[in-house]
Amino acid sequence: MSDCRQHQDSDRSRPPSPGPDPSACVFRAVVSGIVQGVSYRAFAQRQAQALDLAGYARNLADGRVEVVALGPRAALESLLERLRSGPALSRVDGLEVDWDHQGEAPRPFAVRR
What separation in angstroms does the CA of 69 have from each of 14, 33, 40, 89, 99? Predict the structure, then answer.
């Protein structure tokens, strides 16, 4: 599992570049089970926003939900625990996590169609 430090700039002689916090981590999680039609994306959005994370949640054509989130490692770990539980009407059967995801993570956290 990545500690997210590989994204930091090791050359301290240059000023920091503008943009996202280089110590921030990002993951892509794919959640399987009964996760569509049960407000899972809205649940993920509420949880991520409460943790001040960037990213999105969207339905996949195969019935799973994709969640991409960016922020401090501890907050991301907390979000993953919440995603494993899901909202009341959901049933989470699996959660695949990729800590090396390189995609975008918009702010504020959004629900995508």
Answer: 28, 20, 15, 23, 10
Q: Of these residues, 12, 14, 28, 41, which one is catalytic?
A: 41
Amino acid at 58: R
Q: What is the mean pLDDT of residues 67-74?
A: 96
At 82, which helix (H) or strand (E)? Answer: helix 73-85
Report domain extents, the chain: 21-112
Q: Which of 58, 59, 73, 82 is catalytic?
A: 59
Whether 58 is a known active-site residue: answer no
Q: What is the mean pLDDT of the chain?
A: 86
CATH of domain 21-112: 3.30.70.100
For residue 25, the model assigns a pLDDT of 95
pLDDT value of position 113: 85
> Does 107 qualify as catalytic in the annotation?
no
DSSP state of 110: E
